[in-house]
Amino acid sequence: MSSSCEYPKFNPLSCGRLTIDLEAYADNWRFLRDKVNEDGNPTECAAVVKADAYGITVDKAVKTLSNAGCKTFFVATPEEGLLVRNCHAEAIIYILNGLLPGCSDQYIINTLRPVLNTKHEIIEWSENANGYPAALHVDTGMNRLGLREEDARALCEDKTLIAKLTFSLLITHLACGDSPRSLMNGCQLSSFQDICALFPNVPRSLSNSAGIFNGQAFHMDLVRPGIALYGGAALNEHARDNPMKPVVKVEGRILQIRNVKKHESVGYGAAEIVETDSIIATVAGGYADGYIRHSGSTTKIKGAYAFIKGHKVPLVGRVSMDMMAIDVTGVPDVKRGDYVELFGPNLSISELAGHAKTIDYEFLTGLGKRYARIYGPLGEESG
Ligand SMILES: *Cc1c(COP(=O)(O)O)cnc(C)c1O
After folding, report:
1. pLDDT given for residue 383 in this prediction
2. CB-ligand 1 contact for 98 (6 Å cutoff)
3. What pLDDT score does 144 carry?
4. Would you name the residues annotated as active-site residues?
5. 9 pLDDT tier (thresholds 50, 70, 90)
6. Most buried of the four, 170, 193, 225, 379, by CB within 10 Å?
7. Sign of torsion, CA 294 300 304 306?
């Protein structure tokens, strides 16, 4: 996969660039596939590609993983399902948001499988789908989507209804998978095992990325990783020590470099006052580009960092809509037009997300439309 040569590394008119390493993405998928098959019990490794594949572009993501051998994809909405169908005729595609009212025909024409979440959806599907396969979602503790356990038991007793349905997958979703010590994980596992026993021949799927790292019992027949494929932290502890390869690098360009004198302020609200004479670079990239405003810095509470020419440098002042300021005092050879890494191989997305009091997912899925997109290796350093 050397798609990198099709795309220019440098677009003179763009103020920022997003580099997406599809090889690393495929490596992450193979790593998880191998991990869930280590014990010898076969487990299918699917992929979650909702929200434009967590920001990395859904068609590129699907092509890359299907070349690597991935056969099953999960998206949130039926429209996302169509995007996957358009780039892959054979893929098995599940719609996590379920069956939208009155839309069975369109799911079937496009061979999309709903994840049935309620009795209403189940009945509607049974009346329209002629036994076309669907997944069944049983809730075991999220209280978000899915049948309550008692309703799943009742469904199983309703032989006439069951006879009209083909379940190709039984799923549930962990609430606290990112904390393997949470007692909730074991409770959800055992509730799910009880439900699975009622549907003996239906393949079972419990784990998102985090679940995969909770041990073999959580792997079952199929896993549904998202965030780990994209290089994000699946477990809380991965924020410090992440076994996955980074897949995305985000860079903004320096628009201006200025001298700021001791005790002058930088940015809106004069929120940060510099303690010494400083060299401040104004970088293109702000909250309109998905760089969360909460990452900014104030005199009292310091903010996130950026990375340039081998140096980790602090943000100064608030993040604006289109730009932010960084302190480049002491970094040699910084000039207008240089690229600054906002997150990527030198600055983990988890570290940035921590400063912004959010999670890796929000940074990835919020990446704006203004970046030039480059598909290729992340490279070593910005400059
Ligand atoms: C989003 C989602 C996933 C993927 O979760 P990650 O934490 O990104 O691995 C898996 N299953 C369901 C039901 C989801 O909604």
Report:
1. 63
2. no
3. 97
4. 50, 268
5. low
6. 225
7. positive
